[in-house]
What does this fold into?
Amino acid sequence: MNRVAAASLFLFVRMKLQHCYLSVIACLLLAACQPELVLVEVTREVFRDGMATAAPPAVVTESVEVTRVVMSEVTRVVEQVVTTEAVVEVTPAPPGTADRPFQLLFAPVADTAVISTRSVGLIEALEADTGQQFEIGVLDSEQAVIDLMCAAPVETIGFLTAVGYILAHEQCGVQVVAVAQDDIALTWQMGMIVVRDDSEIESLADLADKRGAVPDLNSIPNALYVQAMLQAAGVETAELSEIPSDSSTMLAVLNGDVDFATATFLPPLLPYEDREWRYGVDDPELWREVGALPRRSPLGYVLVLGEPRLGGYRVRDARSRVFDIEPAIFNETRILTVTAPIPNETIAFGSDFPLGMARQMVAALGDFAADEACAASLCSTDLYNWTGIVMTEDSAYEPLRFLLEEMALTEEDLLVDRNQ
It folds into this structure.
């Protein structure tokens, strides 16, 4: 090879190396990874004395540093949204406000439309007296009323039977506040056991193996409570049949068809009406002490020695209803005993009802019951027929607790629609 050729080859190799070197630099700037160094052997010719010789050129090996481009996988960054749940406590509205009105709860004692319509005047009166908000709830059953009072003990007011109150108090501590007065201003109902005056029956024990009659087997004062009394005394009668109506049972015992019979007891009105007859203190036939016989007054009352305002007695028990057809009924029959008083319909508050508001509510309800407006509301004849509302205590319901325990009745037995 001549010098020109050799020089050309040297320049060619040098240019190639420079080109590679520039390419490597460019790759390094573009790559997303660290460079890796490798050794590459490159052969070049060496000339001696600046002249080519006939002998083969010496081959000199030297190390040249070359940067190799290595492809590397790049992980893509993906934005991720993380949701964090936070528990926020919301304070409920105060009871008695528009968002949380006090609930007046009724069982279906009448048609729903009747209860809703009759309750409008009650709500208006309560809101005017208390400045609170109220609404009516008519539920499918008395047990449903109890369940809601237990679930919302702060804002519920229930209109319950005496039995309903007992169960509600037992289930979740519902508080009794007031009891209703009926159309003759009594807050309770009682039954009586009547026998013939010429019989030898002097006590409950003497009713063993005797035949009896009741006006309604579902009546608490006239049937269920009487059975509880007999059971507690260990007395088993021969028969206890149902003869519908108080008048029929009184005629049955008068005529000797049965040995004893039950009916509704209303206490006599006492002379001058200076006090009321007292259960457990006064004899059921207190009027007999004067030794005079009952008579019918021109106004239709059965009186002993005239009107109470004039010093006489007014006899009101169930026998007075048949006095006109059997004037001898008071002479030929007598009351053996009476049942304990069973409270009327009851107004009860949830167990956590605010005490101050409860007192204000009782006063407002009492004022409403005494007002003429009540005649078109709770006191109407197609609803409760009340004449007033009286404060009461839990102890007034002990007779019912005795009945529950003695007869071992279930809730289904007690919460049926019955005529007390």
Q: What stands out?
A: The longest helix spans residues 3-30. The first strand starts at residue 36 and ends at 46. The chain is about 30% helix and 20% strand.
